[in-house]
Write a structure and sequence with these properties.
Layout (H helix, E strand, L loop, with lengths): L1 E6 L4 H13 L3 E7 L19 E5 L5 H11 L3 E4 L6 H6 L1 H23 E4 L5 E3 L4 E7 L23 H20 L3 E6 L2 E2 L8 H10 L4 E4 L5 E3 L1 E2 H14 L4 E5 L4 E3 H11 L7 E4 L14 H7 L7 H14 L1 H7 L3 H10 L3
Helix pairs in contact: 1-7, 2-4, 4-5, 6-8
Bound molecules: nicotinamide-adenine-dinucleotide and thymidine-5'-diphospho-beta-D-xylose (TDX).
Length: 351
């Protein structure tokens, strides 16, 4: 049995990853650690938590005594860190929370893992590590900054973040790499492009547009809607992380993305068409401050080394996603019933 600590798995990608690994591997036992912020919903994974192969702990990755207790009790072999403040617009409003969770939380997890996993010292004085342990950091393409009309992000593209969110994720990546270089900690990092699919919180573009259409609200597009994102179906991201944890090289960064670049306005029009609604619902609103123009991932490394390729085409993935939101109205109605209404009002009225 391999013991996993998966943080942030009551959120969008972490929940999809949890479901994927529980179905795929008989030999994993998972503890989910999640603070259940506005973005985390226990209902998403309630059916997976059986207190045999999957346990849930409500708590903060910044809480070191809690982490030490969990490491002592469950003897983790693998840590997968999804927990983060993940929304760029919220980071513009309250940067400090992003530093707290995304940087200090990651560093705290690294230290807890180090305390639990180091077995001694080698001849050069570097720590030696328990066999088979791995710390995997879930990062983002946003750490690379913004592209012009041409080119792609590779793993060696210099990091040049622009938003408080991406600056905090970049800093966390530097700490993960620093722990590898300084302590020889067995780490890996994935930098993925924009995900879409089931269980995504409706503050993000695709579920927000689906949700607003179903609620008969206008569809807010920032600026001209010409910014480009590289969209990947969430399960393809989960498969990439699983592959890297099993077969990826320690100390390496892997870009994950599917060569599926689209302008925001195209995405919104596709969703209108799928749901049979007029494009006249589209409303251009004030642009995001420091809005990155274009993201595009070069996934050659993960393809060449591990044979990974995205399996879900955008045309199919977007249909599946829309159908999921139609079939799971209760899920998103619960999610948007509380704090989200104040957030929406603050973010979109008079924009
Ligand atoms: P999300 O906002 O949907 O979920 C984040 C989860 O983390 C929530 O369940 C929340 O309760 C939990 N959390 C927040 N602070 C915590 C803390 N201090 N301690 C414990 N749990 C805490 O985010 P997501 O979209 O699923 O993203 C997951 C990860 O993937 C993030 O690290 C993000 O940077 C990265 N990422 C996201 C995308 C994307 O398109 N959404 C793309 C690339 C990378
Ligand atoms: O109402 C909107 N209107 C709009 O035009 C929203 C919410 C977004 N947008 C635009 C901004 C972006 O150009 O759509 C694009 C996508 O926006 P988001 O869904 O907020 O995603 P993005 O800012 O690209 O970041 C996402 O991908 C990378 C995730 O939120 C990050 O966690 C991940 O790291």
């Amino acid at each position: 049995m391999k013991n996993y600590l998966v943080t942030g798995a009551a959120g969008f990608i972490g929940a999809n990853y949890l479901k994927y690994i529980l179905a795929k591997h008989d030999d994993v036992r998972v503890v989910v650690l999640d603070l259940l912020t506005y973005a985390g919903y226990l209902g998403t994974i309630a059916g997976d938590v059986d207190n045999e192969r999957c346990f849930f702990v409500k708590g903060d990755i910044c809480d070191r005594p809690l982490l030490d207790r969990l490491f002592a009790e469950y003897k983790f072999d693998v840590v997968v860190n999804f927990a983060a403040e993940s929304h760029v617009d919220r980071s513009i409003d309250n940067p400090q929370l992003f530093l707290q969770t995304n940087i200090l939380g990651t560093q705290n997890l690294l230290d807890a893992a180090r305390a639990a996993w180091v077995t001694g010292r080698d001849a050069q004085g570097y720590p030696t590590w328990r066999n088979g342990v791995r710390f995997h950091q879930v990062s983002t393409d946003e750490v690379y900054g913004s592209l012009g009309a041409e080119g792609f992000f590779t793993e060696t593209t210099p990091l040049q973040p622009h938003s408080p969110y991406s600056a905090s994720k970049t800093s966390a990546d530097h700490f993960v790499c620093a722990y590898h270089d300084t302590y020889h900690m067995p780490v890996s990092i994935t930098r993925c492009s924009n995900n879409y699919g089931p269980y995504q919180f409706p503050e993000k573009l695709i579920p927000l547009i689906i949700n607003n259409i179903l609620a008969g609200k206008p569809l807010p597009v920032y600026g001209k809607g010409e910014n480009v994102r590289d969209w990947l179906y969430v399960e393809d991201h989960c498969k990439a992380i699983d592959l890297i944890i099993h077969k990826g090289r320690v100390g390496e960064v892997y870009n994950v993305g599917g060569h599926n670049e689209k302008q925001n306005i195209e995405i919104v029009k596709i969703i209108c068409k799928e749901l049979g609604k007029p494009e006249s619902l589209i409303t251009h609103v004030g642009d995001r401050k420091g809005h990155d123009m274009r993201y595009a991932i070069d996934p050659t490394k993960i393809h060449n080394e591990l044979g990974w390729l995205p399996e879900t085409k955008f045309e199919d993935g977007i249909k599946k996603t829309i159908q999921w939101y139609l079939d799971n109205r209760e899920w998103w109605e619960t999610i948007i019933s509380g704090e989200y209404q104040n957030y929406y009002e603050k973010m979109y009225s008079n924009r």
